[in-house]
Amino acid sequence: MKSYRKELWFETRTRRALVRITDDLEQVLHESGIGEGLLLCNAMHITTSVFVNDDEPGLHQDFEDWLEQLAPEKPHSRYRHNGYEDNADAHLKRTIMGREVTLAVTDGQLDLGPWEQVFYGEFDGKRRKRVLVKIIGE
Predict the structure, then answer these.
(1) φ/ψ (deg, to 5) at 102
(2) Which of 105, 73, 97, 76 is nearest to 4 (CA)?
(3) Using CA atoms, how far apart are residues 17 and 119, in angstroms rounded to an integer?
(4) Distance between CA atoms of residues 20 and 23, nearest Å
(5) What is the pLDDT of residues 28-78, one digit of tens each?
(6) Residue 41 near residue 119 (C-beta atoms within 8 A)
(7) Distance between CA 97 and CA 64 in Å, rounded?
(8) Coil/strand/helix, residue 24
(9) Distance CA 131, CA 126 (A)
(10) Rounded to an integer, what distance in angstroms lies between the CA atom of residue 62 and that of residue 60?
(11) pLDDT at 84
């Protein structure tokens, strides 16, 4: 069995953003030379997420609205965590959206459904952060 590891780096211009990374993962898979196995992709920062869903702008806005209702950014004083930093809402949003995805690899391709895409979710942006991609298989 082989394994392959790579880090992808992101820096968003906004505090919150959804970035489609499916093509990035397909490129890493191609680099790995692994044709059958599993690909793990996980966020390496506690205020970021990796998840699978539809690449549809209306849905993305629905996520933004829904997350802001569940864990509003302001007022910052509503959170006990906010002292040194003002990102408690970002920690909660990450917990809701998830830390990682594991995808099957078949014949050198990601096994995704017809509308499924992989996203990097940023909830406290404007600084450089990384995502780990680990692929195991043959």
Answers:
(1) -120, 125
(2) 105
(3) 10
(4) 8
(5) 999 999 999 999 999 999 999 999 999 999 999 999 999 999 999 999 999
(6) no
(7) 11
(8) helix
(9) 15
(10) 5
(11) 83
Strands 48-54 and 116-122, by their bridges, are antiparallel
**Rounded to the nearest 5°, which phi and psi values hold at 11?**
-145, 110
pTM for the full predicted model:
0.95
Q: What are phi and psi of 72, to 5 degrees?
A: -65, 145
CATH of the domain at 81: 2.60.120.460
Confidence of residue 117 (pLDDT cuts 50, 70, 90): very high
State how many domains the chain has. Answer: 1
Whether 138 contacts 2, CB under 8 Å: yes
Q: Which domain holds residue 96?
A: 2-137
Provide the residue count of the chain. Answer: 138
What whole-number distance in Å separates Cα of residue 13 and Cα of residue 24?
Answer: 19
Cβ(8)–Cβ(28) below 8 Å: yes
